[in-house]
Specification:
There is one protein chain. By secondary structure, the chain is mainly alpha-helical. The protein is 65% helix and 3% strand. It has a single domain, classed as dinb family like domain (Four Helix Bundle (Hemerythrin (Met), subunit A), Up-down Bundle). It contains six helices and two strands, in the order H-H-H-H-H-E-E-H. It has a two-stranded antiparallel ribbon with strand order 1-2. The protein is globular, with a radius of gyration of 17 Å.
Length: 178
């Protein structure tokens, strides 16, 4: 029975992934942005995978996040920032406790967060992209299209820190492909 549940889950996930990948974004901006986002997702997940689970609690200083906390922060905030700034939703941070998660669970969280934003990229209309929002930290008013760059920049900032943690442990990081 367990075998059939696994097979059913794999088939369901495969169909979802195929459907997601066959859907085209609705705007010129999102058609341009989607491959950039998907490459960022791949690179971030590669960073998460290359760090051994035994080093997920590594942090370079007492004030720093652990590697696991960096990855969970990314996973949580790509969705949160997309909701807040791209979709205009009133959401509050509720980051999971990284110390209670395995490497595999963190990678699943990353995939979920990136997939959430990918789905928004596919579905958002030009009229929504043209709306403006006020950035929480800076107070700057930007278009919701521009907010996608903030989501990616924030993710890249924390991914770069995680990449440094990998190097500090004498592990070769994944190749950067852009």
């Amino acid at each position: 029975m367990k075998y059939y549940v696994i097979i059913f889950t794999l088939i369901l996930f495969s169909n979802y992934t195929i459907a997601q990948n066959s859907q085209q974004p609705k705007t010129a901006f999102t058609k341009m942005y989607l491959p950039v986002w998907l490459e960022a997702k791949k690179h971030c997940i590669d960073v998460a995978k290359v760090m051994p689970e035994s080093l997920y609690n590594f942090k370079p200083t007492a004030a720093s996040k652990t590697f696991a906390e960096q990855m969970v922060h990314i996973a949580h905030t790509v969705e949160l920032l997309t909701q807040r700034y791209v979709q205009g939703m009133d959401v509050k941070p509720n980051t999971p406790d990284a110390s209670k998660l395995t490497k595999a669970e963190i990678i699943i969280l990353l995939e979920h967060g990136f997939d959430y934003t990918t789905n928004v990229i596919h579905a958002i209309e030009q009229s929504q992209l043209d709306e403006t929002c006020v950035m929480y930290h800076s107070g700057n008013t930007v278009s919701r299209a521009f907010a996608f760059f903030y989501v990616q920049d924030h993710m890249a900032n924390h991914r770069a820190k995680a990449n440094l943690y990998i190097r500090m442990n004498n592990i070769k990081p994944p190749e950067y492909t852009w």
